[in-house]
Design goal:
Blueprint (H helix, E strand, L loop, with lengths): L9 E5 L16 H12 L2 E3 L22 E6 L9 E2 L12 E2 L12 E4 L5 H14 L10 H22 L1 E4 L10 H13 L2
Antiparallel strand pairs: 1-3, 2-3, 4-5, 6-7
Helix pairs in contact: 2-3
């Protein structure tokens, strides 16, 4: 079975595998661990070493020792994601300590407005009319090669973009924004308010 998952940053969880690769107090190595490492590697992930090594599962009996079975695999080529923390004091009533990692989030510009042309509006009629009149001015008589065709296609794109911004109105996003709200909705609401029917 082939699994194709792109752009994985991390893989973490209770893998329930004891191994000397990540637990120095455990004397054995297992081929199951090798398979886990190969699977992680196929996703571009490598085993992360915690900044504060220690057990991740705490035994509640004297016969069983604490162990490391909770693991984190991080993106191999990432400079920002290079280690994680074990939080033994945050496990509360669980026998597993949480694993923690800081993931930096870059600044992102979130636009609070957009240009819209309401369907069946005067702006839409103007937009279509302007496109038709501007398309008539394009010379399509000498399309002899792909370079000329590319030029004409770019002209069409430029006309559509210019006419869009000429006819569209700027609309701000808010919690009350409704993309489905049209002029017919407004007319129906006004009719209801007048007649209460």
């Amino acid at each position: 079975m082939e699994v194709n998952i792109n752009n994985i940053l991390l893989m973490t969880g209770d893998f329930n595998i004891r191994d000397s690769l990540w637990d120095p107090s455990f004397p054995h190595h297992s081929s199951i661990s090798d398979n886990l490492i190969l699977i992680a590697d196929s996703f571009g992930l490598a085993l992360s070493k915690p900044t504060n090594p220690g057990p991740t599962r705490f035994s509640d009996t004297d016969r069983e020792s604490n162990s490391v079975i909770d693991l984190m695999f991080l993106r191999c080529d990432s400079v920002e994601l290079d280690n994680h923390f074990i939080l033994p004091d945050s496990r509360l009533s669980s026998d597993h300590a949480p694993l923690s990692i800081e993931i930096p989030i870059g600044d992102e510009i979130i636009h609070s407005s957009r240009h819209v042309i309401p369907p069946r509006s005067e702006q839409e009629k103007g937009f279509i009319k302007d496109i038709i009149s501007n398309l008539k001015s394009i010379d399509t008589s000498n399309i002899e090669d792909s370079t000329r065709l590319d030029h004409i296609v770019n002209q069409v794109g430029s006309i559509i973009e210019r006419m869009w911004y000429k006819n569209a109105k700027k609309s701000k996003f808010s919690k009350h924004s409704k993309q489905w709200w049209t002029d017919s909705c407004r007319i129906a609401l006004n009719s209801y308010r007048t007649s209460r029917s």
